[in-house]
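Sample 3 of the quickstart, ligand adenosine-5'-diphosphate:
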Amino acid sequence: MLELINIKKSYEQKPLLKNISFKVDAGKTICLLGASGSGKSTILRMIAGLEFPESGLILFNDINLAPIPPHLRDFGLVFQDYGLFPHLDIFNNVAFGLKMRNLPKEKINIRVNEMLGMVNLQGFEKRKVTELSGGEQQRVALARALAVQPRLLMFDEPLGALDRTLKEDLLNELRKILDKTKIPAIYVTHDHDEAFAIADRILLLHDGEIIRDGAPDDVWKNPNSIQAARMLGIKSPLLSGEG
Ligand code: ADP
Ligand code: MG
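Result:
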C-alpha cells in the first residue's frame, strides 16, 4: 500500500526529517507519535502532496506519487480544527466531495445518509456547522472524509481540541469505523494514550527519525531506548534519574 522510503526534509537549512521510512499495510492503522514540532504534520502534507520531500520516495501500490497532484491521490485528511465549510449545512459538507465528482443526486443522498449514520449524526442534515459541538463537528469531518471512499485516511491530531471523555468515545467509534471500512489510516498525535487506543502499529518519531516501529504490545514491553520509553510515558525504576 503506502510506502515512504528514505524521506528527507529541511526547513531553512535545518533538517527536520532525516531519514523516514515506513509502510502502511492494507486495512491497518498506524499511529505516528511524536512531540510537537517533530515533523508529524509535515509527513502528512508530503503524503497528501501539499509539500515535497528533498529526497526519498513516496509510493502507493508501488506507484511513485511525486507527479500526482493532491486531488488525484484519493486520500482523505481530518484535522484538529475540522476544516468544515461554515457557509454550508451538514448535508452539503458531507456531500462536498461527491458533488465535486459529479455523482448523481440520488447516489449522493444515499451516500450522505449512510455516512451520517456511520458517525451517529442521523437527522443532522439541515443543521449549520456553528450549531454543532466540537465532537459533532469532528464527526462531520470524518463523514466527509469517508464519503468519497478514499484509498487512505490521514488524521492530524483530530481530537486535540476535545475533552478527555469525548476523546475516548470518539476514539472507540473511530476504531470501529476503521475496522469496518478497512481503509488504511495514518493517525498522528503527541498523546501516547490516544496512540495505544487506536493503533495496529506505533511509530515513534524523534529527532527526525523513526526510533521505534512495532505492534503496540511490543513497543510497550520493549521500547528499546530511554527516549522511546519516555515518549510512551513509561515510568520505570530503570529510568529514574533520567528526568
Ligand atoms: P508537528 O506536526 O509534529 O508539530 P510540523 O510538521 O508542523 O510538526 O513542523 C515541524 C517543524 O517544521 C516546526 O518547527 C515548524 O516550524 C517547521 N515548519 C513546518 N512547516 C514549515 C514551513 N512551511 N516553513 C518553515 N518551517 C516550517
Ligand atoms: Mg502538527
